[in-house]
Design brief:
The protein is of the alpha/beta class and about 240 residues long. Helix content is about 35%, strand content about 30%. It has an eight-stranded parallel beta barrel with strand order 1-4-5-6-7-10-11-12, surrounded by four helices.
């Protein structure tokens, strides 16, 4: 399984939110460049970076930090947060970003169709952030603030061009209560060709092992690393 250590950027600092709440922020490192180097030294070379300011405002306020991280040798990154136009995606790819994460914009008009016309499937990650409502995983947008009223299963059933799917249970993100194994199992049973990326709630090596059993190939790990529930040595040796 490929592990993506998470660097969430807010006001130029490395933070984590609890349950997607911008009012519940914990700062872990004031220097995200240093944090990226720490991951690289442990042979964790593919990073998951989210511009939280961008997710909240639609403006890339941490782009200079992303550029500096890209200067680190042997580092690849996937980046998301407020990237809501074809031009911004092209800009990120031209900067050297390996994969661009797109969420909110895919619910705007013909944007998803434009994505398919302009980019290869491997270049894009669709961020489908969800909450369970009436026992149905329902997608939320705009930094997890707005209900799209679209079920996760319906969306995937209608849009299968892009295979990289980052599915985050918002209610579990940063909560250290374990990921939503049931939803992941259902998705892979219904859509086995997807590259489903686990995100939200991962708290231990046991959680990662359970995800491997479900046949997930990639996972984003954030708070469990920063709170030292999972050591970087274990991740670099075992995954």
């Amino acid at each position: 399984m490929k592990i993506f250590p998470a660097i969430d950027l807010k006001n130029g600092r490395c933070v984590r939110l609890l349950n997607g709440d911008f009012n519940q922020v914990t700062e872990y490192n004031s220097d995200p460049i240093e944090q990226a180097i720490i991951f690289k030294l442990k042979k964790l070379n593919f990073l998951h970076i989210v511009d939280l300011d961008g997710a909240e405002t639609g403006k890339q306020l941490n782009q200079e930090i992303i550029k500096e991280i890209l200067k680190i040798s042997d580092i690849s990154i996937q980046v998301g947060g407020g990237i809501r136009s074809i031009e911004k995606i092209e800009n990120m790819l031209n900067m050297g970003v390996a994969r661009v994460i797109v969420g909110t914009a895919i619910f705007n008009g013909d944007f998803l169709t434009d994505l398919e016309k302009n980019f290869e499937s491997k270049q894009i990650v669709l961020a489908l952030d969800f909450k369970i409502q009436n026992q149905i995983p329902t997608i939320f947008t705009h930094g997890w603030q707005d209900n799209s009223n679209t079920s996760l299963h319906d969306f995937l059933n209608n849009h299968l061009f892009f295979k990289n799917i980052l599915a985050t249970d918002i209610s579990l993100d940063g909560a250290m209560e374990g990921p939503n194994f049931d939803v992941y199992k259902e998705i892979l049973e219904l859509f086995p060709a997807l590259n489903l990326i686990a995100s939200g709630g991962i708290r231990s090596l046991e959680d990662l092992n359970k995800l491997k059993v479900l046949n997930l190939k990639e996972a984003v790990v954030g708070k469990a690393i920063y709170e030292k529930n999972i050591s970087l040595v274990d991740l670099s040796n075992d995954y």
